[in-house]
Amino acid sequence: MKKYLNYIYTFFLAASIFTMLWAIFTTIFSPRIGEIFSLFRNVHSTKTIILINSSCFVFTLLLYPVIARFLAKETKKWVLSNKFTFIFFTIELTIYFISLLLFIKFIGFKQAVDDAAITLKFLDQLSLGEKWGYNYMYSNPQNLLLMYIFSAIRTFFGPNYSSIIIVFSLMHIITILLTFLSLKNLKVSNLVSLVAIQILVFAIQITLHVPVAYTDILSLFFMSVTLFFFTSYLKTANEGTNKFSYLYIILTSIFCVLGFISKGTVLILVIALSLFLLLYNNGKRRVIGLVPFIFLFFGHFLWGQFIDSQNLFPDKNYGQPNTHYIMMGLHNTPIPDDLPNENKAKWTVGAYDSSEQRFTWDMFLDKKMSKEKIQVEHIKVIKQRLKAMNLIQLIQALNNKVSVTWGSGDLKSSFEVFLGTGKNQEKMWVFQNNFSGLIVYSIMMVIQYLIYLGIIFSAIKFFKVINPFIFFSSIYITGYFVFLLIWESSPRYSMGIFIPAILAIGLLFQKSEEKHKKIV
What we know:
Largest sheet: 2 strands, antiparallel
Number of strands: 2
Number of helices: 24
Helix content: 55-70%
Order of helices and strands: HHHHHHHHHHHHHHHHHHHHHHEHHE
Keywords: Membrane, Transmembrane, Transmembrane helix
Number of domains: 1
Shape: globular
């Protein structure tokens, strides 16, 4: 295996570069238009959005060498002590927390939205002693961990939705803090760590998802804990102090599995961790690559046993087949050749569609068909849709899916805020007008480009020298991107790469004197 490690490493770095170039391409040449992509995009023309996106990309491209030059000079002048760094960062996080709550109050965000609202509704039913039948939660049990967290918050802080917002705000503060500490584990200097973490602090598109209190913010929290322990493992392994390395891998696996239970897409993180540990380690130490999968198996089994013991559902067949999401991922294909120009940018492949969901629910909830029979029906539809496309049409459909998921810096955040206000238009000028709307949207796009370009530049920097974290992150980012080519499309999903990307950016700016494995 060691003989081929260099080739595998190079493959994943090249693949991660390709995926991010594709993501950037779609933001400039084929951006989607509509409310879920941004309230700002929804009220401006495609040409305007392309011009703004192009300008943001050029600005970000020029920003990287400016930051690099600044850090190269100032790291010699400013050697920030740990005490100063943590005092400064604590003050910043306090300001961030207060500003977030003030903005939520200003904008009028007052109610749960989308799946979080549905989850709360079913929690209310349980609280009243009502029994669940064949319904949304029976079909989507992946929201049960979120429901139990909501229940705990209500128990300790009362039923007001504001208490959920505050807890999720604090959860996100911890996510930012743990990401910063992960940078420190990777031996990134205090100054560079402070600069890199600003990407997450100023990621408005993620901050606006905090009051939504859905699985996106929850899974980011578990990912930050996972990567904190994983970078702790890398630190001990690099220093040759293996005393706690196995403990760190166990903790990494536990929180990664909790992340998977909170959101299914975290499965890619579990796979990436296992694959990295199997490939990068030598000899008998490769066996630790099995640890994440072992914890995944037992964690999933124990969670299932716990759910069954609660007698929430009428039977144990709950959870609609995953083939549903693959089928939905091919919705709206092939793309019609005769689409009017004004509709081309609004056409979305693979996004959530109520008719697709109804098709599955008719079989799963109403007719109570077995999962195996439903999967057969899904596969029939999948095959029909694939056969209906030639190679060019398939490439067009995949490019559209990339644009849906990766092409929106907004990540559906402004639309979720709009829903959280009860669709009150009064304050939506913040996202829509030509001044504040342009500023907010531009910041979102710059942050998105910082992430994409950071992945590309860090891969280029370490292309000839194997850096363990860059190796792991390239496996994860490549796998996650490919997975979303197959899965249902949503702008929210792209936030799944933010934390590993920020850690990679920290390594990009850090002048490392460590000796890693060289490619020869």
